[in-house]
Amino acid sequence: MRIAELSRRTGVPVPTIKYYLREGLLPAGELTSPNQARYDEAHLHRLRLVRALAEVGGLSIAAVREVLGALDDPEKSLHKAMGTVEVAVSSPVAVAEDAVAHAQAREFVERQGWTYRPRSDAFQSLVGVLATARELGHERFVGQLDGYARACGPLAEQDLDYVLGAPTKDAALEVVVVGTVLGDAALAAVRRLARREASGRREDAERGSAAGEGDREAAGGAAEGDADCR
Amino acid sequence: MRIAELSRRTGVPVPTIKYYLREGLLPAGELTSPNQARYDEAHLHRLRLVRALAEVGGLSIAAVREVLGALDDPEKSLHKAMGTVEVAVSSPVAVAEDAVAHAQAREFVERQGWTYRPRSDAFQSLVGVLATARELGHERFVGQLDGYARACGPLAEQDLDYVLGAPTKDAALEVVVVGTVLGDAALAAVRRLARREASGRREDAERGSAAGEGDREAAGGAAEGDADCR
Questions:
Q1: Within 10 A of B143 (CB to CB), how many other CB atoms are there?
Q2: What is the pLDDT of residues A123-182, one digit of tens each?
């Protein structure tokens, strides 16, 4: 197919496809003439993957490149792919060394019975968040962590089951990549939906009356600004 | 204090502070001469807040502006602030209408006993993620949602408790803002730590032997690529 059809079938504008081609995220098509290339189903799938990572997952182009590298890696190690994706999806947090935040993060990790890995991106990211909370005077924030851990334990098992349920090794690699990125995006959306519900329920409870659907809709409507009017 | 001290105490480079000033995220200091301004503790706190939102939270400048607007809003409505923050932290997902994905999202929401709000950002975001999963051939993905909902119910209650635990109304507004943005960042970090642990445990189980800390460290080390070597 030509680039116009690639664009039509994926919803990605032609200039964006050309950008991805220039950045090497998408392999070149087969040149049928000096100015025209043809693309096949593999290009289609790769383009959809790039779109999923960049637009739905919000990854930078550099991060997308890292992740695609893991997929194309002949070694095809699941653990390596998981590691690459994890690093790619996390935004680096420049952390000024905050000893108290570091200690809080360490105590938290050890309280869960987890291994203390101070040089890992995830641990450093957590220290950065705790340091930021402290610097803003939010001393209570650290108390939120145990609840997060309680939620994340089952989620981690679920994520692994999903990855390991893939039919082939090649499929598993892509499942790791897509599952992680889309999983994070889905979790964020579900989290917002759950918060909206909880917030609406508390509003109803405060009102004290048997609030009908109309009231809940109005209360819920206020919670997302103009969003419902789009 | 002068801008150099503001920079030193927050870790934000002077050019970045000047950028925030130009963008109106930070109010101008008090001019003491045509080329010099003085800043006070309020500026310091505001700058830390901007840094938390933009650098730790990863919000765009436009989103930071929206969120600060909610904080400065004389009406000081908690629900309005929550709504503004929620919209600001979510990346808009351009959704080509996918009826199957929409139906999947609706069934999911109704299965939880939640209100179906098809025009809300959160719902549309979920539809977009499901549509992307389907388009990539990941038919199993929708099965992950119920587990996410189970985790997010308690998290939503916890988030609300945190917000409502603030001492004053002004403090509550900032807690909504910071709690949401930092909370998401902390949850993402904890999620990665939990996944790392779960992955390591399964590796140990596969090995079958009584894997010691050394083995787990090695197994865990592979899961984050070069991260541990930084």
A1: 12
A2: 998 999 999 898 888 888 999 999 999 999 999 999 888 887 877 777 777 787 778 888
- For B131, phi and psi rounded to 5 degrees? -65, -40
Instruction: Give the integer Cα–Cα distance in Å for B34 and B105.
Output: 58
Query: How far is residue A163's CA from residue A177's CA, in Å, rounded to a whole number?
Result: 9
Identify the closest residue of chain B to A151 by CA–CA distance: B151
Q: How many Cα atoms within 13 Å fall on the side-chain side of residue A82?
A: 23
Beta-carbon separation of B223 and A79 below 8 A: yes
Strand partners, A31: A37
Asked if A194 and B152 come within 8 Å (Cβ–Cβ), the reply is yes
Q: Which two tokens stand for residue A223?
A: 């919670």
Phi, psi of A40 (to 5 degrees): -120, -170
CB within 8 Å: A49 and B130: no
Helices B78-89 and B121-135 cross at an angle (nearest 10°) of: 20
The domains of chain B are located at 90-168
Q: Out of B79, B80, B133, whose CB is closest to A182? A: B133
